[in-house]
Amino acid sequence: MDFSLTEDRRMLQDSLTRYLTEQYPVEHRNKVAYDLPCHDDAKWGELAELGALFALAPEDAGGFGGTGFDISVVFEALGRGITPEPVLGALMASRLLTTAGAEQEALLSGAAKYAVAISEIEAPYELEFIAATASGSGDSITLSGRKSAVYGGQVADVILVAAKNGDKLGVYEVQASDAQIVGYAMMDGGGAAEVMLDATPAKLLIEDGTAALQDAINAGIVALCSEAVGAMDVIHDYTVDYLKQRKQFGVVIGKFQVLQHRAVDMLTEIEQARSIVIKAAAELGGPDATRYASMAKNMIGRAARLNAEEAIQMHGGIAMTWEYPVSHYAKRLIMLDHQLGDTDYHLAKVAAEIAA
Amino acid sequence: MDLNFTQEERNFREEVRSYLAENLPARISDAVRAGGELTKEMMVEWHAILNRKGWLATIWPVEHGGPGWTPVEKYIFEDECCKAYAPRIVPFGLSMLGPVLIKFGNDAQKSTILPRILDGTDWWCQGYSEPGAGSDLASLKTRAVRDGDEWVINGQKTWTTLGQHADKIFCLCRTDPDAKQQAGISFILVDMDAPGVELRPIKLIEGGHEVNEVFFTDVRVPYTNLVGEENKGWTIAKYLLTHERTGIAGVGFSMQALEEVKSLARKVKRNGKPLAQDPLFSARVAQVEIDLEAMKLTNLRMLFKAQQQGAPGPETSILKIKGTVIGQELKDLARRALGPVAAPFPGHITDGNIMFGPEDTAQNAARYFNNRKTSIFGGSNEIQRNILTKTMLEL
User: Fold this and answer.
1) Is the ipTM beyond the 0.90 threshold?
2) Residue B226 belongs to a domain with what CATH number?
3) Which residues of A touch B159 (CB under 8 A)?
């Protein structure tokens, strides 16, 4: 048993963390995060050069990673910096392209930006209720329907779309310039888009794509959960620092036992969260990946909410301000629950196995 | 034991309901329902509508222009206002300074200031908290020094709600730095346009602007702007805190929010069915509904006691703690129910024709974040627990 990172992953973690701390500090992050395109193209290129994208794919697909642990390392660093760049879309697209055996050099080098369109307004988290349709075959395939919450869709060059062709759920490649894209900035920073498809030309990537899409979602969940662990570490550090500095009633407020215990409860949940994410990362790609992804996402939903809300409360006012970084970490931690299935959605999935 | 309102109270409820139905402009209630920030004009207009009927200064005695309501009548009025999506009455002049002047002010202050609060001439804001004096309010440092027939004020206030609209601010200032903390504080009135007063906006977590910092640099105001006795401001501050706590359970707003969550859960889909049929989500809603049902009664029990004893007791801290937590849970559910469509930053959606969630839900995530303030302001929930520990447990 060994819970330490390999030398390569540790180096990647260090270089990404150092780069983001120095080059993408929260002041810059806030300038980028809340206005379209919610993206800094130069920094994106530099992140790619550091290997943030190559680490997401296995060697035989042109990358140098692709395991759950590689994904964790990248996204934990992104979470520490609440980086708004569209890496989640790149990861999920890379999983699909790897399954399809398709070329992805442009994605991994950062030259082309990819997003994945699964969610729909009436099927926010579930593959089985997707309503967008594909028709035609060969060179004349077209897609119709509306895809929702396409993360990174506001700057994507290529969008991989989940759509129904008869009773099969396929994955199709659409050039963003062929679709109607309505981009928006999100509450917690970063961008997404609604993608309107109306007989939009598309290329078939995977004909029977349910398993591939579930794998992409599982990888996305490992990514989001790792991001949350990084963000929780930071928000907890801020909180403990504040407890040590802030004086009221003549003492630092960290002397009050009620606050000490609550800061410990935050820490306990973070450690539990870190553990379940390690498990989900280890299982990614295996037969039980979906089960452990659901466990991780449920626990992260709970731990992230506790950490966000308690951090705000224990800061008493100051963390309610835009100027103080904790507010942005708190928003990210809360809104992360709205991506790829929330606390209840994943709890229900784990619960369903009890009856089965 | 009789849980029913009296016939007179029921009649009163009918009177309030019909007045609101006839006089609350739809454009104002629509704005309240949508959950964004209200304009100053809307708030001023609503105050004027209530003032015409004599229902604006809900806790003032009749001789100063109040309606002379019992606590139960005030409760009924607020309940109906919530149901009608009326704006909240801006409390700083009406619920805070007004009662203070009535109790501690001199005749000149009462006769000049109170009418201007009622008719909307003056918008007041509150200068209490400072960067170093939040929960520990008595440690405040803003200094007022007497110079002949003037005060000279230096210092900084913060969390000044709606100060951007204000003409005047009432401040707690330190006037005797040598006295024991609570003993050297005075309650002083300041014009916002006096030279040396500077207001800077604070942008909140969700992007909104409702609070401000106010800086005082050699600000001169007449000595007669002192309310009550010099160095006795803490007595006023404490008196005000009990007034701030009436209605603090926010039961009406939570009932409104509960109905919104239920209606939203019937409209949005999860797993191919209305979210209302999702057992986990509906259990969350049911749990809050149970808490709220109990809170309605807890609130009325304390109201009844206040009515009998003439003043709310320390147990109203229970209303603050539980009431804010219920409100926050409901905001959490309203955000959660929307799933991914909760994400767009309000106002950042570039194409107005794109509907994301059901109507009036665009602010749900923003409202959740903004609402975290309720367990912090007005004496944080931790401070309320301290109060209960001292007063109820005597520990």
Assistant:
1) yes
2) 2.40.110.10
3) 317
